[in-house]
Write a structure and sequence with these properties.
Helix content is 43%, strand content 17%. By secondary structure, the protein is an alpha/beta fold.
Length: 368
């Protein structure tokens, strides 16, 4: 008989030792009783013998408990974090922060989905609250995660196509190293907030564009995520509540589908989950509406939530992430988007076709 590790073997050895000691105890007990007739001496002898038994029993028992404790400590899951520099398909260097849980014992030995977080920040900075807190929230629910530090307005060159290529290169990197990160390469999700939503949706367009595939040398299946989440997204640069101007002058791409990413939706665009607030004064709700319409016209699966309030920039919408003097960013109602996204991802990643009875249902309502 073989064992997966040495722990079971050590336990059987300890049990055997205990069994031998018990047999020896009875042997000594009866030997003392037969040879020695003096009752007092027998009692003293038994006391000595019991003391000896206590010492002898302590050794294997302590060994057993110690081994059990060591086994437990070895089986504890730990999260590893790293800052990694990568080169995108255009040769530009960018970085990702990785959050990885790896384990080889049940139930944590399963391949984990991956969440690639693309924070917002008006293309001038990376929002802290839309970065690590979001990554850790998904890690706590069984994902591994990373945060992409894409190029900004103040960086050399234009934002596009490099920012989108940063996302696609990250997808490709994880697919190539799926075993190292204990992830399922067919369960990779991108999630972009605000300006990060523009980049995540632009990346999906770049993934399916033959022009960019040829120019930068990648295959669509290599770089396309399996699902995308857009949080209060900017999808059309012209549908923002103020003129971007300043450093953005001359930074807009020439490709209109990288300006308005709804124009870049295709039937191959990944299933998409969108949450938005009706009273968002920054990225107007019409961004989400136009993108949802494009998804519908192309037959792409979508789940969308338009909250009546929430404004903008609330991330997970928990009180802990509310900016000072902006308490409304902690919104219990809006915070439901995270739980809803988990349910939606479980549905999308299950592979179950929930539309199999769609035609049958349609026929029931068709006029006779």
């Amino acid at each position: 008989m073989t064992f997966g590790d040495g722990h079971e073997h050590h336990r059987l050895r300890d049990v055997w030792q205990l069994f031998v000691i018990i047999l020896w105890y009875y042997r000594l007990h009866y030997t003392f009783g037969e040879i020695i007739n003096d009752k007092l001496f027998v009692n003293e002898a038994l006391i000595i013998m019991y003391s000896l038994m206590g010492v002898l029993l302590t050794i294997p028992l302590a060994s057993f408990l110690l081994a059990k404790g060591m086994s437990r400590s070895k089986s504890e899951a730990k999260m590893e974090t790293k800052q990694i520099e990568l080169k995108n398909f255009n040769g530009r260097t960018y970085s990702i922060a990785t959050y990885t849980v790896k384990h080889h014992h049940q139930p944590l030995d399963k391949l984990r989905p991956l969440a690639i977080v693309v924070p917002g920040g008006s293309f001038t900075h990376l929002s802290v609250k839309e970065s690590e807190p979001v990554a850790l929230a998904y890690v706590a629910r069984g994902f591994n995660a990373c945060v992409v530090s894409y190029n900004l307005l103040q960086d050399e060159g234009k934002i596009y196509p490099d920012a989108g290529l940063d996302v696609l290169s990250t997808v490709s990197y994880y697919r190539d190293h799926a075993v190292d990160y204990q992830i399922d390469p067919d369960k990779i999700m991108t999630i972009g907030f605000s300006a990060g939503g523009h980049i995540a949706s632009a990346a999906n367009y770049l993934a399916d564009s033959p022009k960019y595939q040829k120019q930068f040398g990648y295959e669509d299946d290599q770089v396309r995520p399996n699902a995308t989440i857009l949080g209060y997204p900017l999808t059309d640069v012209h549908k923002v509540a103020f003129e971007i101007g300043g450093k953005a002058d001359g930074a807009l791409p020439d490709d209109e589908k990288l300006v308005d990413t709804a124009l870049g939706v295709t039937p191959k665009t990944p299933p998409t989950f969108i949450f938005q607030s009706w009273n968002d004064p920054i990225c107007l709700p019409t961004n989400a509406m136009a993108y949802e319409e494009a998804l519908f016209k192309n037959g792409v699966k979508c789940e969308a939530h338009m909250f009546d309030t929430g404004f903008h920039g609330y991330s997970l919408a928990t009180p802990e992430l509310a900016t000072n003097d902006i308490s409304w960013q902690g919104n219990q109602h809006v915070a439901q988007w995270f739980k809803l996204s988990l349910e939606w991802l479980a549905h999308v990643f299950s592979g179950i076709d929930y539309d199999e009875n769609k035609d049958k249902l349609t026929n029931l309502y068709m006029p006779k």
